[in-house]
Amino acid sequence: QLQLVESGGGLVQPGGSLRLSCQASGFTLDSYDIGWFRQAPGKERERVSCISSSGGSTNYADSVKGRFTISRDNAKNTVYLQMNSLKPEDTASYSCAAPCNWPYDYWGQGTQVTVSS
């Protein structure tokens, strides 16, 4: 089955860290740039970060710049999102997609991140 599977979400206190993983199943990620997106209830979906197929180029939303880091390990067919200094406003469902821009070939089911004390 061709799919993206996210993992690593959970409940964390403000100021804490989480690392999300996005693993491809049934296809290889190395030809795709990959994006991480998030959506909170009642809010529009936001693209958090994007990484090029080689990993040589990355970009971030202003809301996470300096706190989040996207990376990839093509040998493991996985893209990561390291999230530090988490804030309550980072609470959302986080999904990965390939490629970064519409139209998307693949879209994961999402993993919930909740930042709360």
Describe this structure in words.
Helices cover 0% and strands 49% of the residues. The protein is an all-beta fold and 117 residues long.
What is the element layout, followed by pairings?
Elements: E1 3-7, E2 10-12, E3 18-25, E4 34-39, E5 46-51, E6 58-60, E7 68-73, E8 78-83, E9 92-98, E10 106-107, E11 111-115
For the structure shown, list the relevant keywords:
117 residues, mainly beta, 7-stranded mixed β-sheet, 4-stranded antiparallel β-sheet, 0% helix, 49% strand
**Portion in strands:** over 45%
> What's the alpha carbon Rg, rounded to whole Å?
13 Å
Low-pLDDT sequence parts: none
Beta strand count: 11
Helix and strand run = EEEEEEEEEEE
| Computed structural class | mainly beta
- What is the CA–CA distance across the termini? 38 Å
Question: How many strands, what sense, and barrel or not for the largest sheet?
Answer: 7 strands, mixed
Mean model confidence by pLDDT = 97
How many individual helices?
A: 0
Helix content: under 10%
Shape descriptor: globular
